[in-house]
Design brief:
Elements lengths: L1 E9 L4 H4 L16 E4 L5 E10 L6 H7 L9 E6 L6 E6 L2 E5 L4 E4 L15 E4 L22
Length: about 150
């Protein structure tokens, strides 16, 4: 299924950790490679990646969690799916990358699919301060618990 998404990883002093992710690797569960983002002094402070298919991103967050970050408290992962109003923010909490609530936003979820033949849906991160009608939120018990990332 086609579904565009962008990922930005910001992390201090993590060039060595991120370097292997700038290369293609058929052994990874996710497909693609990060491109370094450099400041005007040439220092890399972030890495960006674009996805065009949902299957291509499966396992990305788990892979990032497994890396030996020199300063995990500085790691910020920004994710924007094609239906999101803005980037969502994931940060380490107790060794896991979790989505951090951003003021004036809410992630709206679809009901879980009938079986695992369907890819997990990331939901939509929508701004709640735009005076537009928001979708009805799916009760937590009916959401898909699998990570789309």
């Amino acid at each position: 299924m086609s579904r565009d998404a962008e990922v930005i990883v910001l992390a201090r002093w993590s060039d060595e950790v991120m370097e292997p992710l700038t290369q293609d690797d058929p052994e990874r569960t996710w497909r693609g490679r990060f491109v370094p983002i450099a400041g005007h002094w040439g220092y890399e402070f972030g890495w960006a990646l674009e996805f065009e298919k949902m299957r291509a991103r499966k396992g990305l967050l788990r892979h990032l969690e497994s890396l030996p970050w020199p300063h995990p408290q500085t790691v910020q992962v920004l994710l924007r799916d094609q239906d999101d109003d803005c980037f969502g923010l994931w940060m380490f909490q107790e060794g896991r990358l979790v989505e951090v609530t951003i003021p004036r936003t809410e992630r709206f979820h679809q009901p879980a699919p009938p079986n695992e033949d369907f890819e997990p849906d990331p939901g939509m991160l929508l701004r709640t301060d735009q005076n537009t009608a928001l979708p009805e939120q799916t009760p937590e018990a009916r959401r898909d618990t699998r990570s789309p990332w």
